Batch of 2 targets.
Target 1
Amino acid sequence: FGIEKITDLLFYVKKPSEAAYKVEAPTAIPAITESSVSGSVDIKALLALGTIEHGEKVFKKCTACHVVAKGGKNKIGPALYGVLGRKSASISDYKYSKALIAHSKIWSFAEMNSYLIKPQAHISGTKMAFAGLKSEKDRASVILYMNSFSDNPLTNP
């Protein structure tokens, strides 16, 4: 302990008054919060970003667990034919998580958008382990693609 004090006296180094290197901090990107997702998203503008064709490509990530075709069978996840406009957890022959059953909302464009950002954050306790779609274009496209697979598709806002 004493050696440190003695060396400080023998080899005194004056510290500079200002930093030699100035590092510019990157501008912070605001995080998506649940409150910013829940009601303040302009769905019309969001859906304008997407296309059904792009949604078909992005939906390939979902095909490991979901089927979107009419008459499709449930896989790891439920069949998604006609999902938009339908109440959550409403397919009788699929075993949903308790969290999704308790959620009991209608799958609107806004609700689906919020869910697809990060399913576990939107409905805590859901069985869906998918991390989510961060890209607005990808989410909009998948929503438009899923909406096209319905007997009564929702009208675009």
Target 2
Amino acid sequence: MTSTRILAIRHGETPWNVDTRIQGHTDIGLNEEGQWQAQQLAKALASEDIDAVYASDLSRAFSTAQAIAATHQLNVTALHGLRERHLGQFQGQTWAEIEAQHPEDAARWRQREPDWTPQGGGESLVMLHQRISSLARDIASQHLGQHIVWVTHGGVLDILYRLATGQTLQAPRTWGLRNTAINRLLWTPEGLQLVGWADERHLDSNEAREENSA
């Protein structure tokens, strides 16, 4: 077989997600909601044949991946390359703080300038795109004919969607990136293809919420 099936998933919710605080490479763990999301995700994927589980080495992604791997008796392979975009000096700040204190940078960020690079070791969108496109090829090519999981971050998933659909880096985002939503991709030597995106049924069912509140 000359293709690899990929489940690409954002980590569960964290306290900084709730606060709209920029995480980037800062290692923030899951909150209670995020832990519940990870368990619901694991249940939703329990019946699927999965051959390998990869995750960002940041704990919010790695912990989410561990919930999936446990139901399949697999180990999680941690990869630095699956980390979120490095956002330099803005890591740890809220959106409101950035807009108030650095309005020019905030405007360039919101306009998705491809070459804008946050000070303090940050990555531009071009740098992130290059990192993820190369990593996607390197991982997927090792699993031809298999079904694998990548647990990663919103910025990484945004790039994967663009790679699979041909969207430019500056195109406005119209696709969802909810925590632990299930996204399906197919990789071939020609590149990525979109199979399904933002499946959130495991998070929104009445049964799931009733179970969580019991």
